[in-house]
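INFO worker-7 received task bundle
INFO bundle size: 2
INFO processing item 0
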Amino acid sequence: MTTITTPADTTIGAGLEIDPAAWPKPAVYQLVTSLVVPRPIAWVSTVDPDGRRNLAPYSYFTLVADHPPHVAFSSIGEKDTLRNIRAVGQFVINVADQRLLERMDNSAGHYGPDVDEFQMAGVTPAPSRLVLPDRVQQARAHLECELVDVHPVGNGNIVVGRVVHVHVDREVWRDGRVDSRLLDPVLRLSRCYGRLSPEVTAEEEPAPHVFE
């Protein structure tokens, strides 16, 4: 296991005041990925213009709008996922649950464009409804997306997609909505994985904009 060393500071007092620009890159990575937690994972499936499939997880992922729904994830550097999305303009966010953790993690390796990560991970490709890339059949939810834009930021590339179709398995659908406890999504905590806690607060009323 690689150990990331942070700069020594014996005058902490009430806490650390940190200038990220003064810290080594690995130390900053460990710092911010330990603070922005938990992070949902976008298990992104894409296809290149020649029909070669790609599947990879991204933990820099979030919802950015709900009407119409848009999601975003960040690719650090230029990888096959990003190249395929630029070329084809579509992708699928497969929601990985705890049953799929090991297989999802297996798809995170640095493979060449000729390698089919669906096969490497031992998951089944299934046709999407509105986009060209396949979905992961074993996943309990899928967001089919069309590319809106790619924004370079720092060493990342923020991929924004409009959700044009959603599939949800009946196993996680209760009382007219998704039950997140049944969905049991994989979460990222710095350099390890986690899951949702069963302890939650009482549900709140929807935000005013939902009905506007």
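INFO item 0 finished
INFO processing item 1
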Amino acid sequence: MVDSHDSSGGTDDRPFEEVFYPTDRIALVEWREFSGARPTVALTALVTVLAFVTGLSNLSQSQVALDGPLATVLPMARAFVRFAGVLFAFPLGVVTVGLQRRKRIAWLAAMVLIPGLVLLPLSTGNATEIPLLLVVLATVPLLVRNRADFAETLDLSALQTAALTAIVGVGLYGTVGAYGLREQFLELNTWGDAFYYVVVTIATVGYGDITPLTTEAKLFSLSVILLGTGAFTVAVGALIGPAIESRMAAAFGTMTASELSLLEDHVVVLGHGDVTESFLDRFGDETDLVVVTPDADVASRLTDAGVEVLTDDPADEAALDDVRLDAARAVAVAGDDDAQNVLAVLAARSVHPDVRIVAVANEETHVDKLRAVGADEVIDLRAIGGRRLGESVFEREPAGGDEGVGAHAAGPDTDSPTDTDVTETDSPTDADVTETDPATDADGAENDPPTDARG
């Protein structure tokens, strides 16, 4: 139970669940759980798995059946059916990771690759590929519906951009150069041969089927080897670097940008105090939570306990943008410093005017201030402690045989059935009667019915 101060200045007694998760929701709002960004990512992953399994099945067959309606109109249908499943699955795996991070480029790639997989079952006409067709038809509408959720740009560092550009440049240089010098190579006749030669050269495989015959061609091959392996090495380092950074960030108790982008329908806890620990213990396993605290030691400890943490100032609007306050279900302001709590409420209300904010007041004099700056609910910790103390005294003292302990010890707002000095009675009595028989008069003496009040 909480002592919550509403906008009218009164108090109401409700459990934490009702304060943070009000039941007056719009009908069918839970449909978002089945049609939002997360189900879209999950279906994309399922499409990837089904495409890979279908591709392996087609590769394992000596002859691939082409009984579908598109088999006669699709160019190179037999080669497409045999290799398309696996060739689509690998880039879709990368696309799935990108969709998890809400990348726009991953969404664009998914809109190209996933509809293309429809050609596979429609070319083979194989009944075992119907699940792939159905999942694809379910995924594409969700991708279109949730396109606004995949709006994160691909923020590449200067080193990553340079490394990827270098790889593309070396590939073009090698392909065009090899084709231009095709007369000086053995078994190099087409653009496809030139591209194949560049790939096996940069990968240092060197099958030996295409070999340079002249000094000029040999020098060209050496340049492709040096430039290609150098660009590849730099690119690998540039791409692995963010993964190492993510691990280091986790060790210091803070979330990375990619992890923050996954937050949705979560509760943001601004500040950390004694009440925060109880809140996390009670709701940490039931709800997606992220705690914003400037204390690095607390952040590291919470991270070790499996709690998502951003080490930053709870009153910093930029930090609230990072934890995606615009997509949050509610905000809990629960620091030990009421002054910081007031600033955190102001920042949260500025970032998201409509979000539900529940704040903790460590001092009773600050309740009105927190409500005035925008908190929807204010929990007065001192009032809770005092009332619980009174309730405990009221409930336990009569069991020890002491009489005359009144309910007023708990204050005027208690959960007891009366607000007079009544402890436990079996029948309606006057205010100062403890445990009496119906025949007892107002002075508490036990008399027979014929006897008057003087005994």
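INFO item 1 finished
INFO post-check item 1: The longest strand covers residues 356-361.
INFO post-check item 1: The longest helix spans residues 215-251.
INFO worker-7 idle
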